[in-house]
Amino acid sequence: MIRLTDIVKRFGDLEVLRRVNVSVREGSVTALIGPSGSGKSTLLRCVNLLEFPEAGELVLGEETVRFTGRPPERETIRRVRRQTGMVFQNFQLFPHRTALGNVMESLVVVLKWPEAQARARALELLEKVGLAHKADAFPAQLSGGQQQRVAIARALASSPRVLLCDEPTSALDPELALEVVEVLAQLAREGSTMMIATHDLRLAASVAHEAVLLEAGEVVESAPARELFTNPKHERTRRFISTLGIDAQLPEARCATP
Amino acid sequence: MPYWLDLMLQSLGPLLWAGLVFTVPLTLLSFALGLTLGFLTALARLYGPRPLVALARFYVWIIRGTPLLVQLFVIFYGLPSVGILLDAFPAALIGFTINVGAYTSEIVRAVIASIPRGQWEASYSIGMSWSQALRRTVLPQAARVAVPPLSNSFISLVKDTSLAAAVTVPELFQAAQRIVATTYEPLIIYIEAALIYLALSSVLSALQDRLERHLARSSGTLEAAA
């Protein structure tokens, strides 16, 4: 279970998250949608403590972090980050390491696995994202879609409890985005827990079980993905979804069912 | 054999010897120590507590704002007045180290700051600590960017060590001065000394080139560009 309770986050005077509540069942995928600046990326970054909320509570498995306005203890941050993996909009692969090196990094440096064992695990993960043949390529030699798939493998390396995806397809053209969507959909079928902040309805509709619409730092509506996309309760949700053109896409996009 | 060539060949031995025994060690040692000092100063300025930041800025301000020759004179001729007596070589070594430290700290600070924030965040997101992120992710990338400006400092340093002659270090340039004092051939001897400095700098430029190629290859940027 991943539960965020009454999360408040400010950047200076700007309140980016206003008492946000979201919970994610293990094995389910939650899409965070909403206009730019609605706080969905910030919310994701609060889950792995790249941002420290001013108030609220984060429950991540057995770990409970209460935010008081002071940074959490270093040890707490370490434990939380070991249970989370993150995929960034701009991939953020380590450019000086090969695909294999990128995936091995957390195993060797953080978990102190022996080299050979880490290599085997990293190859397995590259295989899973369909890039075993690119193990020795550097990021600059890979397409955007391939880079993002390596980034997914890197985020999965230490077997996180939850995979956080921050606009994973936004930097990619539709064709390359599709290969990333397919990888994420496969992970979803295998029961990975994920939180995905996205504008990409193909991604949200085909992968997510639950969907949360955020606007101006507040949750507008939270419902099973199919329901939120086809039969939104709130006028605001309806308007937002119509701007994304979900109606046109829905027939082919099969909403995942838990 | 023409007279000038004969003279050059005769003085080549003493000049090279002075270069080998004083110029080269002084350059290598003060660059290694200076770069270490510059690295620590850069870290202090970027990540240190406020007093340390102020101290680092003050140090860079003083050293960059005063002539190297004056700094060497203060250390070698000035410090004895307060009871600190140094031999010529250690005095020069300290002076050059402090000078290199100030200049390279600005280079190191700039290249570390040039690494995108996302690289730190990616490192944190896979569980790395600050020092692991610095060592494994940021410094290897920063090092590649730092090679050309650091090579600049290094090559400048080779030539600047000639100032050590003024604080009685018998390095290459001082050896040349001595030969001139007995032969009265300043044009020939000083040109010869200049050529030796030029040769040293050229070797370093070639090494820089190889290092840049090596670093580019080990990150795939050469193949990607091809």
UniProtKB/TrEMBL annotation, chain A:
Keywords: ATP-binding, Cell membrane, Membrane, Nucleotide-binding, Transport. PROSITE patterns: ABC_TRANSPORTER_1, ABC_TRANSPORTER_2. SMART domains: AAA (SM00382). It is a peripheral membrane protein. GO terms for molecular function: ATP binding. It holds the Pfam family ABC_tran. Residues 2-241 form the ABC transporter domain. SUPFAM superfamilies: P-loop containing nucleoside triphosphate hydrolases. It is found in: Cell membrane. The keyword Hydrolase does not apply. InterPro entries: AAA+_ATPase, ABC_ATPase_HisP-typ, ABC_transporter-like_ATP-bd, ABC_transporter-like_CS, MetN_ABC_transporter-like, P-loop_NTPase. PANTHER family: AMINO ACID IMPORT ATP-BINDING PROTEIN (PTHR43166), L-CYSTINE IMPORT ATP-BINDING PROTEIN TCYN (PTHR43166:SF35). Belongs to the ABC transporter superfamily. This is Amino acid ABC transporter ATP-binding protein.
Automatic annotation (TrEMBL), chain B:
The chain crosses the membrane at residues 20-46, 58-79, 187-207. Signal peptide: none annotated. InterPro entries: AA_ABC_transptr_permease_3TM, ArtM/GltK/GlnP/TcyL/YhdX-like, MetI-like, MetI-like_sf. GO terms for molecular function: L-cystine transmembrane transporter activity. It comes from the Bacteria. Residues 20-208 form the ABC transmembrane type-1 domain. Belongs to the binding-protein-dependent transport system permease family. HisMQ subfamily. This is L-cystine transport system permease protein TcyB.
